[in-house]
User: What shape does this take?
Amino acid sequence: MAISEKDIVWVEEPSIGLWEAMYLPAIAGGLATTIRHVFQKPVTEEYPEVKPVLPLNYRGVHRLNRDEQGRVKCVACMLCATACPAHCIDIIGAPTPWEDRDKYPVKFEIDELRCIYCGMCEEACPVDAIELTSIFDLTGLSRQEMIFDKDKLLSVYDKTVQGGKDPARTTRGVLGPASENLVPAERMAWPIDELPSSQVNS
Assistant: This one.
């Protein structure tokens, strides 16, 4: 298809005068913004005494869910590791000793520092084994502490599911099974030192 001159739109380069070349309008605009903020009431969040109110779909620390018999729900299908855009999930599967599934993970690790908390792993899981909770105050003294192995991920489940109720916020919101017993006023967060230390390569 031939392009005619009518289809071409010529854009002229904007001319910069002396006033713009001296950056005076930009400086005046920046000063005006600063002066407006000086007279505004400051907003101070009294953290950690006052916990932030998180949205229902906040994506925080991962957890591995257990089934009705207390076993890890994961079937080592590798779909979460395949869907992960950050490649922060490492799984080694093995034949399971149970009759109701073929495989289970002997190793399941998530690098919480590398993760971008997009929720793709949760959406890819066919058995709802991995979820993102509302735990936001994640800290560690070393990079190794931020690698969550299977025991640590299961301990997050044990901490967030108590008495049949699930106060953790998940990305599944009101759509997933983890939202059945949610109480909107409940918020759950706890420091990393309450979790068991990771046993990498175990």
User: Anything to note?
Assistant: The chain has five helices and five strands. Residues 62-194 form a domain with the Alpha-Beta Plaits fold (CATH 3.30.70.3270).
